[in-house]
Amino acid sequence: MLIVALTGGIGSGKSTVGQIFGDLGAIVTDSDQLARDVVERGTTGFDQIIAAFGDEVLKNGDLNRAALADLVFKDPAKRKQLEQITHPLIRKAFAKIVESAKGDSIVVNQIPLLVESNHNYKFDHVITVSASEAVRIERLLKRGMNLTQIQQRLQAQSNDAQREKISDSIIRNDNSQADLLSDVEKVWELLQVKNKNKS
Ligand code: ADP
Q1: pTM exceeds 0.85
Q2: Atom 14, ligand 1: which residue's CA is nearest?
Q3: How many CA atoms lie within 13 A of 82 on its CB side?
Q4: Angle between helix 133-142 and 147-156 (nearest 10)
Q5: What is the pLDDT of residues 172-194, one digit of tens each?
Q6: Name one GO biological process term (predicted).
Q7: Domain limits, the chain
Q8: Distance 58 CA to ligand 1 centre (A)
Q9: Ligand 1: which atom is nearest the Cα of residue 112?
């Protein structure tokens, strides 16, 4: 089993890379998706958040994620409180996926905010998908975001240099999708070798 972290700034192409790894045979998880799953209505995460933050983070019986994000964005203590609820639950959900995977699997976990969240999980391999800011902005505009939203996101995130510093592999994604596929395939071969040597 090889546990891999896959990170990259918004618009770099990490979801695309995650999908390719999935096609190649990896088990792919997404920390953002896990973060949403653990606070769905009916979960203990949901109950804990309502107990901590009250009805103002509810909308039609569901969690009002925008209101919650707003609340913790303005108040670091509340943000910490939220993370103390969600982080253990996300870790547990991830551990469950790993436990149910076959022994020789390669598990790729997409973690957009790997650098920012001070992850202390020991990954076997860390991959950053990088692309120039101009290329990323162009992709995000195409995806329907406006320039102000894009600038805000870019400013809130760490930069490629910070991500690359903690990475074992860097996948540059400034070119075509075909180039990307061939680069991801190369990293996949490396992961397979590393996985074999580990066992
Ligand atoms: P992220 O998950 O890092 O935000 P995505 O994988 O969603 O990025 O990619 C952002 C957008 O750019 C998507 O619409 C995707 O299809 C497109 N994209 C990704 N890589 C390339 C590429 N090499 N050439 C053209 N478009 C790309």
Answers
A1: yes
A2: 143
A3: 22
A4: 130
A5: 999 999 999 999 999 999 999 99
A6: coenzyme A biosynthetic process
A7: 2-33+89-192
A8: 33
A9: 3
Cβ within 8 Å of residue 55, ≥6 positions away: none
As a CATH number, domain 2-33+89-192 is: 3.40.50.300
Residue 100: phi and psi, rounded to 5, are -85, -5
Q: Which atom of ligand 1 is nearest to the CA of 173?
A: 23
Residues in the chain: 199
Q: Cβ–Cβ contacts within 10 Å for residue 131, how many?
A: 23
The Cα–Cα gap between 161 and 148 comes to 23
Q: Give tens-digit pLDDT for 28-73.
A: 999 999 999 999 999 999 999 999 999 999 999 999 998 998 888 8
Amino acid identity of residue 195, one-letter, is N
Find the 75 Cα to ligand 1 centroid distance in Å.
Answer: 32
Range from 2-11, 23-32, 60-69, 127-136 carrying the lowest mean pLDDT: 60-69
Q: How far is the CA of 6 from the centre of ligand 1 (A)?
A: 14
